[in-house]
Amino acid sequence: MSGGTSLTQAVGSMFTEYDRCTSLKLKLVDCFLAYILATGIFQFLYQLAVGSFPFNSFLAGFISTVATFILTVSLRIQVNPENKKQFDVTPERAFADYIFAQVILHLVVMNFIG
Which of 112, 34, 24, 22 is nearest to 72 (CA)? Predict the structure, then answer.
């Protein structure tokens, strides 16, 4: 039982530290990442349960979800104040790059759907 309690304590201290040290902006980005992850899992499970008859539609939606997740993780890394040494961009510039990449991504996805 001591292994279970130490795991519970470790997870509890991790969430306490996350809540104490993470800014509200990053928490919002993390919530969006959790939503994107849930959407991708739901799309995959739906495809397994129902099928993928319009396969281009499934692929476009799933690739869009995965690419949005990756772009959002990149945004989170660039906006995180602890990474200022690695990235010499302002948060506004990082967000503008993110929006530009999302527009290009969704143009490609809409073209792929047909």
Answer: 34
- Provide the whole-model pTM: 0.86
**C-beta of residue 61 within 8 angstroms of C-beta of residue 108:** no
SS3 70: helix
Among candidates 96, 38, 43, 92, which has minimal Cα distance to 71?
96
Q: Identify the sign of the CA torsion 49, 51, 54, 59.
A: positive
Q: Answer yes or no: are the C-beta atoms of 42 and 58 closer than 8 Å.
A: no
Instruction: Tell me the per-residue pLDDT of 38-72, one tens digit each, with 9 for 90 and over.
Output: 999 999 999 999 987 888 888 889 999 999 999 99
Sign of CA dihedral 87, 93, 95, 99: negative
Query: Of 102, 92, 40, whose CA–CA distance to 72 is shortest?
Result: 102
Q: Are 101 and 89 in contact (CB under 8 A)?
A: no
